[in-house]
Amino acid sequence: DIQMTQSPSTLSASVGDRVTITCRASQSISSWLAWYQQKPGKAPKLLIYKASSLESGVPSRFSGSGSGTEFTLTISSLQPDDFATYYCQQYNSYPSLTFGGGTKVEIK
Amino acid sequence: EVQLVESGGGLVQPGGSLRLSCAASGFTFSSYWMSWVRQAPGKGLEWVANIKQDGSEKYYVDSVKGRFTISRDNAKNSLYLQMNSLRAEDTAVYYCARDSVAYGDYVSNFDYWGQGTLVTVSS
């Protein structure tokens, strides 16, 4: 099974900061990676798919990059609405899907 | 508007059974892979099971194989998860999720999620 490791697990940042979250796969997943945002008590929301494609309606301050085993989610200028937990998910090893452990973005 | 509404969660004793349902609306249900994803209290997301558009393929995470059964009724626009031999570690919010690609041959990522239903396994 492919393992997904996110870092850091928690990140403290201020409004306006540039934030980068890393997701590493235990083996190559090409570009078959998605990123989600989840707020407390809510369902996850798709932000990025195929490593770097922005989901419709998602602000352009979110971007994704990477391929193979290393991926990043970047928020160019953190906004108050962005304080949440972020998860990566691989879908290379069809039909088995795995999520990273999550990165909580907190207010500094 | 795409909507996914889960129901059927609740408190059940270890070894018991529960059937979750997910009512879908606002899209052509029969065109999409569907999945169940769970989240234990304070923990991360875990994919549980998925099912192809016509129900011909079903897959499960190892920890639920032989205990859980995913199914769908395209005439009723509904997804189900029959959970038997429940364990304390199955306690979680269970989400119904739609694959982002219509008519896809493979499951990918999830563009719509329900609000979740809480399953608590405890004596």
Describe the structure.
The complex is a heterodimer of chains A (108) and B (123). Chain A has no helices and 11 strands. Chain A has 108 residues and is mostly beta strands. Chain A is globular, with a radius of gyration of 13 Å. Chain B is built from no helices and 11 strands. In chain B, the strands form 2 sheets. In chain B, strands 2, 4, 5, 6, 9, 10 and 11 form a 7-stranded mixed sheet that branches. In chain B, β4 (34-39) and β5 (45-51) form a beta hairpin. Chain B is globular. Chain B starts with a strand and ends with a strand. The model of chain B has no long low-confidence stretch (mean pLDDT 97). Chains A and B meet through β4, β5 and β10 of A and β5 and β10 of B.
The largest sheet of chain B is: 7 strands, mixed
Number of helices of chain A: 0
Weakly predicted, low-confidence segments of chain B: none
SSE string of chain B, helix = H, strand = E? EEEEEEEEEEE
Question: How much helix is in the residues of chain A?
Answer: under 10%
| Portion in beta strands of chain B | over 45%
Sheet with most strands of chain A: 7 strands, mixed
Low-confidence stretches of chain A: none
Secondary structure: helix percent of chain B: under 10%
Radius of gyration of chain A: 13 Å
Q: How widely separated are the two ends of chain A?
A: 36 Å
Determine the structural class of chain B based on helices, strands and strand pairing. Answer: mainly beta
Query: What Rg of chain B, in angstroms, do the CA atoms define?
Result: 14 Å
Classify the oligomer.
heterodimer
Mean pLDDT of chain B: 97
Number of strands of chain B: 11
